[in-house]
Amino acid sequence: MTEQPTARDPRSPSPSEVGPVLTVADLHVRYGGSHVLQGVSFDVPATGVTALLGRNGVGKTTTLKAIIGLAPRSGRIVLRGKEIQDEPTPRIIRAGIGYVPEDREVFGGLTVDENLRLVDPDLGVDAPIVGRLFPDLVARGKQRAGTLSGGQQQMVSLARVLLRTTSVLLVDEPTKGLAPKLVTEVADVLAEVARTTPILLVEQNLPLVRRIADTVVVLDAGQVVHRGGAAELVADADLTRELLGVSMRREGVA
Ligand SMILES: Nc1ncnc2c1ncn2[C@@H]1O[C@H](COP(=O)(O)OP(=O)(O)OP(=O)(O)O)[C@@H](O)[C@H]1O
């Protein structure tokens, strides 16, 4: 007898009943005399995209770096119920946090395939997830990564992280400096990735946030000043101006 698709098993928890994949509690970062994060606390839900927003220089990148141990910090960081704040960065990454930094950090002298084989020596561009999400990279497997466009390098950086099994992805301004068409492509990939892996996304492009983010966390003056739904925030021009100093940007995603 073939199994019919059924409604959700009533014994299994709904997404809203599942705890957060990541909890940041009372996070402080000091650079010399500058107290950049002053007790930042928020949860990243186990599904979808959480956008981390705030004005320039408010500490968004620092928050991501602090989570993976690349900024000097105190506070509690809990990944799937396990405290990780005392672990060194390689262990935090092995524990399941993927990090895509703002500057992409591809190896320009290596081919696309070689960049991916640094993580998956057996498959590189032949890995199924690369074929599914990044068909253009498969076609460009032999091209040196340094000759790719910014958007294509972003794809290499994302693909490299996705070759590892991750519980949550931290992605820092993936569309910065990209042409609108490439912004749309990167947004499509992130939306697809978020179907299976929760993402904490630093992003300044509000149309993109509205399109792919479910929840938002807004930083100001070293603290979280707003948490809520992404659509609600972006729809509220007064609130976005008050919190971010801007309302909806012109350069958008289709
Ligand atoms: N390594 C460092 N040493 C000293 N100060 C730093 C260092 N890294 C960041 N800062 C400072 O910490 C503050 C927060 O920087 P951060 O890059 O986290 O902000 P951001 O919100 O990501 O900014 P943007 O939106 O402009 O990218 C800034 O004032 C920055 O100058």
TrEMBL record:
Keyword ATP-binding attached: yes
InterPro entries named among the record's database cross-references: AAA+_ATPase, ABC_transporter-like_ATP-bd, ABC_transporter-like_CS, BCAA_Transport_ATP-bd_LivF, P-loop_NTPase
One Gene Ontology term of the molecular function aspect: branched-chain amino acid transmembrane transporter activity
Any Gene Ontology biological process: L-amino acid transport
UniProtKB keywords: Amino-acid transport, ATP-binding, Nucleotide-binding, Transport
Keyword Protein biosynthesis: no
Coiled coil: none
SMART domains: AAA
Gene3D superfamilies with a match to the protein in the record: P-loop containing nucleotide triphosphate hydrolases (3.40.50.300)
Pfam families linked: ABC_tran
Domain ABC transporter per the UniProt entry, residue ranges: 22-246
Source species taxonomy: Bacteria, Bacillati, Actinomycetota, Actinomycetes, Micrococcales
Membrane spanning stretches: none
Name of the protein this chain belongs to: Amino acid/amide ABC transporter ATP-binding protein 2, HAAT family
